[in-house]
Amino acid sequence: MVMSMRKMTVNQRGQIRSVTASGEMGRRIRDMGLVPGTEFMVVGRAPLLDPVALRMKGFTLSLRNSEADFISVEAN
Amino acid sequence: MPQASIKAAMSGQPNCGKSTMFNAITGGSARVGNYPGITVDRLEGLYRLNGYDIHLVDLPGTYSLTSYSMEEVVARNVIVDEHPDVVINMIDATALERSLYLAVQFMEIGAPLVLGLNMMDEVKRSGMTIDTTKLSELLGVPVVACTARLGQGKDELMAEVVRLAKDTKGHWKPIRLSYGPDLDPILDKMARRIEEERFLTDRHDPRWVAVKYLEGDEQVMQAGKNAGPLSVELEAMCREAEKITRHNSNTTPDAIIADWRYGFINGLLKQGVISGGDELRRNFSDNIDRVVTHKVLGPLLMLGVLWLMFYVTFTLGAYPQGWIEDGFNYLAELGTTYIPEGYIQSLTVSGIIGGVGAVMGFTPLILIMFAMLVFLEDLGYMARVAYMMDKVMRVFGLHGMSVMPLIMSGGIPGGCAVPGVMSARTLRSPRERLATILTAPFMVCGAKTTAYLMLVAAFFPSDPTGAMFLVVLAAWFFVLVVSRLLRWTVVKGESTPFVMEIPPYRLPTFRGVLIHTWERVWQYIKKAGTVILAVSIVMWAVMTFPELPEDKVAAYDAQRQAVEAQVKTEHPGAADEELDKLLSEAQVPITDAQNEAALQYALGGRIAAVLKPVTDLAGFPWQANIALIGAFAAKEVFVSTMATAYSMGEVDPEDAGSLSDRLAADPAWSLPAVLSVFVFMLLYTPCMVTVVAIAREAGWKWALFSVGGSMAFAFVVSVLVYHGTKLVV
Predict the structure, then answer these.
(1) Are B582 and B571 in contact (CB under 8 A)?
(2) CA distance A58 to chain B (A)
(3) What was the pLDDT predicted at A19?
(4) Closest residue by Cα to residue B439 from B396, B470, B392, B394
(5) Smallest CA–CA separation between A8 and chain B, in Å?
(6) What is the pLDDT of residue B429?
(7) Residue B336: which H helix or E strand, with range?
(8) Chain A CB contacts of B64 below 8 Å
């Protein structure tokens, strides 16, 4: 099922379909390895549910929900 | 035989262990400098290996080589402009794919590269194996397995540096990556045109320039605009490229370039470089974080850690601070004893020793605070604090990482804005960092606390705790509101993307913490010492000159002599010793009155008098005026200047009870005036030590903005408070 990364729950796995952010935010997201095809798992959310923490490519990454909005994923 | 010299740059992504390796190689002999115009530190060190002097420069840690942050621009410019013989790229082998993304970009520039695969011990523990020989073959770059925290691999790494420098002899060979069927033809065309016109080719490889144009790199495109008309043609080609990529895959060229770079790395790693391990499995740190960033436990633990840091800094730090103050007091006594009375004595004792002493007294606090901060940062905890607090701080235009500097500055009363401002360094987002630096000085630092305690005791004796609590709440309120205002005006702009690695917990090396702490503290001593010395002398002069005219001094002398004569006649049979004591007691009020007159007569007093019509708007008593001027040197001076202005001679700022009584009895201190001074004290110009710290962290332009801006803002708020309260009371 394709959905926005924001909607994913903790412990859910998924694969990135596309990243529509451009400019600096787009670069920052892609530089960290969030490119189409990347597999990841949501490992946590901050106490106020934002930002979100992901496990991918051997490291843990956090990003804000407003940034996750630009990433659509194929959730398992 | 003359020593052959090799220039090497040390690069790597944040948290890859680059600093640890740099320290291991240079043995802590590195020298800290600054890149001109910015506050990124430049570290240089030397390593000797059979006849070679290897000069190492440590590049700032960056994930990529775009031109979005000053760290990235610095890293790129060092490579391009200083043309090192070899670039060492430290790699976090546990996140090999992401780490190689930076390495590939160095290879695209063409710099001869040596990869140091760090954290190999962690890789082994995670059940993963990395075939370094295979990786080296596939990339065509020497690869050395390292564990920097144990010093493993450093000699092998440097041996490869020497070998590579000998082989390449300063000759660079950029690799050509494919960016897919949509972009490759356009890239070739652009590169050809760039080569024909020799466009920017004195600094860059033609194809690299073309790639940067397609990526929309602002720095390169700006340089291109200045270089010649070809830039217009290139920009048109970029628009053409975007049309194609939009049509074929609904995306932009820079996204495609990033995808293909990762694709190249991925394809390489799949050829048997990595085996075993599960990249998506929660590791040890993720499991710890189930508690450390837990909904309830996380914030509680964070408060505990902050409180502990605070407690340790200001409780433990008080001892060495006391020793340093005692040392300077002793020096002051020596000065009083051995320098003949007069200007020189007064300048040396009150101006120089007093001023420099006040600054040096802060160094133990900074030392302890930074040691803990470096420890927590290297441990990985600061990233968790940012992760938990970001949502709240973002509302006010700040960043999760802003919490620590704000607390250190006095978010819990008793802090100090100097280490607070300096600790804002952990923020990687320039705008959020600036807003934090500019507002952190509003917090109730230890020096302001002494002034508030005195004022609260005078005017709110029934509920001092409640009054202090309100002061602290007001401080937080103003910090957050002003941050929001600043981020809407002078530091406006989109919030910097948060996308942040949460590094695994790693126990920092003792030596690393020591070295980093000492670098900070030493810079503080050097820089603050010079400027503050100068300002101390100026403050001393302002409070001393011009002196009372001779006839006034003579009048006080006459009074003293009259008292002397009176005492002698009243106690005809007293021994000399007893007489001296009685005499000095009887003369104290006269000397205090003379000091008060002298202060009013001096430039400082006159400025206070001139300002009176203005400060009347905010209802300040004149004594507060002059004390607030004096408090620019250091906020605790407020208490001692008030004491002089109220003719009280020496008053210990820690125990100013008698002064409080005097203030409470003075009708000039009406409730509106009191509240007005309370607010002004909170918000006005930071003390000079903080101003220097701001200048060091953000530049003199912003330091001056802080001076003028805080002053204007404090005045406006004070006037509002004064008149507002008057309407109500």
Answers:
(1) yes
(2) 4
(3) 94
(4) B396
(5) 16
(6) 84
(7) helix B318-338
(8) 27, 31
CA dihedral (B349, B350, B353, B355) in degrees, to 10, reads -170
Would you call A58 and B293 a contact, using CB atoms and an 8 Å cutoff? no
Q: For A33, which of B101, B283, B285 is closest by C-beta distance?
A: B101
Q: How confident is the model at residue A8 (pLDDT cuts 50, 70, 90)?
A: very high
CB atoms within 10 A of CB B81: 8
Element (DSSP H or E) covering residue B723:
helix B700-728
The whole-number pLDDT of residue B195 equals 94
Burial class from Cβ neighbours inside 10 Å (0-12, 13-18, 19+) for residue B532 reads buried
Contact between B525 and B364 under an 8 Å Cβ cutoff? The reply is no
Residue B1 has what pLDDT? 44
- Alpha-carbon span B127 to B275, nearest angstrom: 9
pLDDT at B2: 52
User: Distance from A5 to chain B by nearest Cα, in Å?
Assistant: 14
Burial-class residue B374 by CB neighbours within 10 Å (0-12, 13-18, 19+): buried
Asked whether the beta carbons of B369 and B421 are under 8 A apart, the reply is no
Nearest CB to A67; choose among B252, B279, B499? B499
The DSSP result for B693-716, as a single string, is HHHHHH-HHHHHHHHHHHHHHHHH
* Cα gap B684→B311, rounded to integer Å: 27
Question: What is the number of CB-based contacts under 8 A between chain A and chain B?
Answer: 145
What pLDDT is attached to residue B725? 94
Q: Which residues of B touch A55 (CB under 8 A)?
A: 279-283, 286
The full DSSP string for B31-58 is EEEE-TTS--EEEEEEEEETTEEEEEEE
Rounded to whole angstroms, the Cα distance separating A49 from B391 reads: 8
C-alpha–C-alpha distance, residues B99 and B117, integer Å: 10
Q: Do B390 and A24 touch (CB under 8 A)?
A: no
CA–centroid distance for B565 within its chain:
60
Residue B507 DSSP symbol: P
Task: Output the 3-class SS for B148-204.
Answer: HHHCECHHHHHHHHHHHHHHHCCCCCCCCCCCCCCCHHHHHHHHHHHHHHCCCCCCC
Residue B309: name the closest of B240, B370, B264, B261 by CA.
B370
User: Given this model, what pLDDT does residue B651 score?
Assistant: 61
User: Where does B415-560 show beta strands of DSSP type E?
Assistant: 500-501
Interface touch B390/A33, C-beta < 8 Å: no
Q: Cβ–Cβ of A28/B499 closer than 8 Å?
A: yes
Residues B509-531: tens digit of each pLDDT: 888 888 878 877 786 677 666 76
Q: Give me the phi and psi of B361, to 5 degrees please.
A: -60, -25
Instruction: Give the DSSP letter of residue B549.
Output: P
Tell me which chain A residue has its CA closest to the CA of residue B295: A47
Q: Report which secondary-structure segment, H or E, holds B668.
A: none
Question: Crossing angle of helices B603-615/B510-544, nearest 10°?
Answer: 90
Give the residue-averaged pLDDT of A43-50. Answer: 93
CB contact under 8 A, A53 and B502: yes
Q: In 10 A of CB B445, how many CB atoms? A: 27
| Residue B232 half-sphere exposure toward CB, CA atoms < 13 A | 2
User: Contact A22/B68, CB-based, under 8 Å?
Assistant: no
Residues of A in contact with B101 (CB under 8 A): 31, 33
Q: What pLDDT, on the 0 to 100 scale, is given for residue B618?
A: 93
**Could B387 and A18 be called an inter-chain contact, meaning their C-beta atoms sit closer than 8 Å?**
no
- Residues of chain B with confidence (pLDDT) below 50: 1
Encoded tokens for B483: 């941050």
Q: Does B63 touch chain A (CB under 8 A)?
A: yes
Contact B75, B87 (CB under 8 A): no
Which of B387, B392, B495 to mutate to probe the A interface, most A CBs <10 Å?
B387
